[in-house]
Amino acid sequence: MVTSVAIGAGLGAWFPINSVAGRVMAGSVLVPLLLLGINIATDIPLSYITLLVYGVSLVGLIKFFRSVQVGEMLRVLINPIFVLPLIFLIFLSTINHIGYQSFEWDEFASWLYWSKELYLADGLNAGELAWQQLGYPQAWPIALALPQLLFGQFEPMRSLAVGVVWHAAVLGIAYEIIVVYMQRNRWASPGIITLTGYSIIFLLLAAEALRKLVPQDFLIELPQIFLLSSVFGLFCLTGLGAEKLRGLSFTAGVLLAAGMMVKVSVIAAVPAATVIVIYLSLAQSSGASSGGRYSNLALNLVLFSIPVALVQVVWAAYAGEFQSGLSTLSISFDYSEDHVALLARLGEAAWAYIGSWKMPLTLMSGIGLAYAAGEKEFRPIVIGLLVYFVFYSAGLFQLYAIRFGPVEVAELQSHQRYLRVPLRIMHILGVIFLLILVVTGSIFEFKHYLSARGFVSVAVLAVILVGGYQLYVVRQSLMDVRDRYSLSQERLGVIKELQSDRKALEPFLTNFGNSKPLIALIAQGDDGYSLRVVRFLALSNRKGEDRIKYRVLNGFTWSEHSGDKKRQPITALKLTEILRAADIIWGHRRDAWIDGIFKNFTVGCQKNISWRFLVKQRANNKYICIP
After folding, report:
1. Are 27 and 12 within 8 A, CB to CB?
2. Among 464, 483, 502, where does a domain finish?
3. How far apart are CA 605 and CA 169, in angstroms?
4. Is the separation of the CB atoms in 263 and 315 below 8 Å?
5. Same structural domain for residues 547 and 451?
C-alpha cells in the first residue's frame, strides 16, 4: 500500500498540474503504460522495468515534497489520497489471517488470471498467453501485477492496494473540488472548510457512490469509473481556476490513454474531453486576439491528443493480430431491421435497471448536474458528461448489435455491469455538485450557523461519526473479501471444494514430470463456472516454476439426451473416446450415466465406484480410482 501511494506520488510529480490527488492518480496509471510500452519495445522483463520505475518514482517523490512549502505540508498530507490508504493499512494490520478469496467468474477467467499469468511470464511476449485469445488491452492486469512483480509468490491481497489508491485518488480530487469552491467563495475558515470537505467525502463513501473503499473484486468496471471520474473531476478544478488548462490537457490525455488500455469502451470519453478542452480554451482566452485564441486551442488539443494517439498506435501495431471483435476500436454500420427491436429491448432494460439500482442517488445526482449546468465553472463538465453518455450508449448498442453472439444478445448479457460505469460517474460528480449547492447555497443558509456557538464542536463530532462508520465498513470489507460471507455460499462451496481437490491432485501431477497432463473436468449441469476455477487453479503460484501445471479439456457437462439445455448432447461411445484422451479425469459433479461410462476402463472400482480423480496408468491405458 505504501509503495503504491509512493509510486503514484513520485511519478505524478512529473505532471504539470497542482492537484495532489490528481498527481497520484496520473502517476499510478502511468505505471502500466510504462511497463507495457517498454516491455513491448525492448522485451525487458516486467520485474526489471519495475525497478526502473521505482528509481524514477523515488526521484519524483523527493521532487514532490521539495516543491511543497513547509507551511503547506499539513494541507497536502490531510488530502484523502493519503488519509484513506492509511486507514486501510491500519485495519489491514489488525485482522488475523488476512487474504483475498477470488469469487467472480471474470476474475477466474480473465482479469486476475491474466494478471497472474503476466506475473509468472514476466512479460507479454513469453509464448502463448491466455490474454492473446481475445486481445484485450492489458493495462489493468499489468496494474494488478505491479505489486507482485518483485515477490516470489503471487498473493492477490497485494493487488487490492491498486483499487484502494485509485479510489482514494478520485475522492481526493472530489475533496479538492469542494475545498477550492468554498475557498473561492470565502464560505468559511480553512478549518471549517476542511471539516466540511471530509464530511462530504465520508458521506460519499457511506452512499457507496464509487462502491466501498476496499474493492470487493478485480473486475474491469471500477478502474474505468476511477479513471473517468478523475478526468472529469480534474476538469472541474480547471473550471474553478485551480489548474492551468495546458498542463491538465496533457494529464487528461495520459489518463484517457491509460483508460483505453484498461477497456476500449473508454474511447467514448475522448470526444467528451475534447469538447471540454475546446470550451475551456475558448472561454479562458476570450480577451485574446483571434489568432491567439485558436493557437492556444490548437496547442491544448495537441497536448491532449498526443498520449491518446501514441498509446493506441503502439498497442495496435503490437496486438493487432490478437484483437477480436470485443477488443478492437473498429466501428460497423451494418445494421438491419432486427436491430430496431434490439434497440427497443436494450432501452427498456436500461430504463428498468436505472429505475431499480440506487434510484435515490441517481435522482440526487441528476439534481446536482442540473444545478452545475447553471454554474459557468461547471457547465463545460456537464456538457462533456452528456457527450460521454451519448457516445457510451452508442458503443453499448454497437456491442450487442454487431459484436456479441446470439446467446449474449438474447440475454442482454451483463448490461447491468455496463450501465453501472456511466451511472457511477454521474453519481460521484452529481452528488458533489448537489452537496456543494446544499452547503454553500443561500437557500439553505448553512453559512448562518457557522458563527453559532459550538458549531465547530458539532462539525468535528459529525466528521468523527461518519468517519467512524467508515472505519467499521473498512474492517468489515476486509473480512468479507477473505470470508465472502455476503455472497452466494453455494458458489463459495464450489470454490472451496475445487481448491481442496487441487491440493489433493498435486502429488499426481508431479508423476508426469515436465509434461503437462491433460485433465478432463466432469461438472454435470454446471454453467461453466467450475471450468474457469479449475483453469485458474492450473496456474502456478510461484515464479521460476512452469506457468501452467496442467491443461484442461473444453467440455465439462454432457448428456445422451438432446433436450437437456445444461448438457452437451453426445453418445456414450463418443464421450468415451474424448475422455480417454485425458491423463486425469476430475470428477467434480458426476451422475449415474457418467459413472456407467467409466466402468469400462477403470481398475479397482468397478463394483463400488467412488472417486474424485481417475489417473491414467500408461502401462495398461486404464485408470485407477483416487477417492
Report:
1. yes
2. 483
3. 59
4. no
5. no
Answer yes or no: is 21 within a domain: yes
Q: Looking at the structure, tell me whether residues 515 and 463 fall in a common domain.
A: no
Nearest to 603 by CA among 590, 593, 617: 617
pTM, 2 dp: 0.94
CA-closest candidate to residue 46, choices 149, 151, 155: 149
Indicate whether 409 and 528 sit together in one domain: no
Place of cell 457516445: 391
Tell me how many domains the chain contains: 2
**In 3D, which of 109, 100, 358, 317 has the Cα closest to residue 211?**
358
Same domain, 476 and 545: no
Which run of H or E residues covers position 523? strand 518-523
Cα–Cα distance, 102 to 156 (Å, whole number): 8
Strand order in the sheet with 602-603: 551-552, 518-523, 584-589, 613-617, 622-626, 602-603
Question: Nearest CA to 381 among 517, 229, 495?
Answer: 229
- φ/ψ bin of 544: left (φ > 0), alpha (ψ from -120 to 50), beta (otherwise): left
- Do 470 and 499 share a domain, yes or no? no
Q: Where would I find the beta strands (DSSP E) of 201-357?
A: none
The torsion angles phi and psi of 272, rounded to 5 degrees, stand at -65, -45
Residue 459 has what pLDDT?
Answer: 75
For residue 107, the 8-state DSSP code is I
Residue 408's beta-bridge partner residues?
Answer: none
**Alpha carbon distance 385, 374 (integer Å):** 15
Give the DSSP letter of residue 538: T
Residues 590 and 445 placed together within one structural domain of the fold: no
Q: What string of DSSP letters covers 326-380?
A: TT---------THHHHHHHHHHHHHHHHHHHSSHHHHHHHHHHHHHHHTSTTTHH
CA dist., res. 572 & res. 590, Å (int): 14
User: Cell for 68?
Assistant: 511543497
Residue 518 lies in a domain: yes
- Spatial contact of 30 and 258, defined as CB atoms under 8 Å apart: yes
For residue range 569-626, what is the model confidence (pLDDT) as tens digits?
898 889 988 988 999 999 999 888 888 888 777 776 755 567 789 898 877 778 888 8
- Residue 332 placed within a domain: no
The Cα–Cα gap between 267 and 480 comes to 34
Radius of gyration of the chain (CA): 27
Q: What is the DSSP letter of 610?
A: -
Q: Which of 47, 133, 106, 99 is nearest to 536 (CA)?
A: 106
The answer to whether residue 406 sits within a structural domain is yes
C-alpha cell at 110: 480473465
Q: How far apart are CA 259 and CA 269, in angstroms?
A: 9
pLDDT of residue 192: 85
For the segment 369-389, what is each residue's pLDDT rounded down to a tens digit? 999 999 999 999 999 999 999
Tell me how far CA of residue 575 lies from CA of 113, 240, 597, 599, 616, in angstroms. 29, 68, 8, 13, 16
CB-side exposure of 448: number of CA atoms within 13 Å?
7
47 Cα distance to chain centroid = 22
**Identity at 174, one-letter amino acid code:** A
Domain match, 286 and 355 both: yes
Q: Which three cell numbers stand for residue 497?
A: 471444494
What whole-number distance in Å separates Cα of residue 319 and Cα of residue 37?
A: 12
- Return the exposure string of 532-562: e unless at least 16 CB atoms fall within 10 Å of the residue's CB, then b: bbbbbbbbbeebeeebbbbebbebbbbbeee
Q: For residue 40, what is its C-alpha cell?
A: 513491448
Residue 586 domain boundaries:
489-626
Among 6-20, 121-135, 425-439, name the one with the lowest average pLDDT: 121-135
Q: Say if residues 487 and 104 touch (Cβ distance below 8 Å).
A: no
504 and 476 within one domain: no
Find how far residue 452's CA is from the centre of its chain: 45
